[in-house]
Amino acid sequence: MPNTRDGRPSQRDIARVAQVSQAAVSLVLTGKATERGIAPATQAKIKEAMAALGYVPNAAARSLRGGRNGLLGVHTFERIFPVAPDDYYHEFLVGIEEQAVAAGQDLVLFASTQRQDGTRSVYNAGANRLRLADGAVVLGRERDEDELERLAAEGFPYVLIGNRSGAVHPMPYVAADYVAAVAETLEALQAAGHRDLAYVGLDQRSRPQAERLDAYGTLLAATGLSSSEPLLVPHGGVGPEWVRDQRATAFVVESPQHGEEVLELLADLGRDVPGDVSVVLLDVPRADHLAAHVSHVGVARRTMGAAAVRVLLGLLDGDLPRTHVEVVPCTPLRGSTIAPPR
């Protein structure tokens, strides 16, 4: 049972569970364990006990002591934590882990933030669980803007993977350069001789999708290209009639799933890609055989994950301000499904 009056676990509880002295726990919490000769295995046992007990350090007291515990948190707003290799966000997590290892930091994946309905909240149990760590990297498509504002207002150090421009309470973020990626795509289509395009995107608009489409609309005039009204539908919603009726000589497609639909429908209609029509995706195809030849730009997910950790450590060290923004170039256009129109 916790020893504190309010029922929260204490350092004594951690020492009991980890079977170490309370002094060792204190050294880990103040970030002085290594210099005082506490073995890495012992430090790991203490951190595991902290996580098991749900111990949340007093951030203000820890700051006054000048200590950091060397734990970086990872919170996702996705319903499933992106540990599976085929999950879109998995590559972000790989980049986060690689950079944390390089910097000698441990990671805490905050899985207990999941609500009963499957969504995730930093404040699921009423308190900020992320305070167990020195700071956190936050990612996910279904992000809660109110929680991000609250975290920043409380002064909790975090870095968001994704654009957060215009926030009332700033905190650093790492964003993909969608404008440059779309510009490269349209310039390649223009250079191949295309003039009429068609655009396919998701009906549920998150910020990354909106940035791509906004860049597309802005850059069309600059490149002298024209486009039919963008088709914004759920995955599985691209109809054969729409594809058949398009006068476009090239399709620009937001998501890999829609890209697969468009390619399949064109094949069913007997239209050769790229002989009859060109297709380019604004993200990396899911299947390796498609990624090898379908023209696409891509989000540099692993690079962005690593950048988020570097920015977070810079914020914690006082080297970067809360207003810091890092824009990461997308992967360059590659593939062979852009060809001159017939």
UniProtKB/TrEMBL annotation:
Key word DNA-binding present: yes
Record keywords: DNA-binding, Repressor, Transcription, Transcription regulation
Protein name: LacI family transcriptional regulator
Domain of life where this protein originates: Bacteria
PROSITE patterns: HTH_LACI_2
Record flagged with keyword DNA-binding: yes
SUPFAM superfamilies: lambda repressor-like DNA-binding domains, Periplasmic binding protein-like I
GO molecular-function term, one example from the UniProt record: DNA-binding transcription factor activity
Family matches, as CDD domains: HTH_LacI (cd01392)
Domain HTH lacI-type: from-to ranges: 9-66
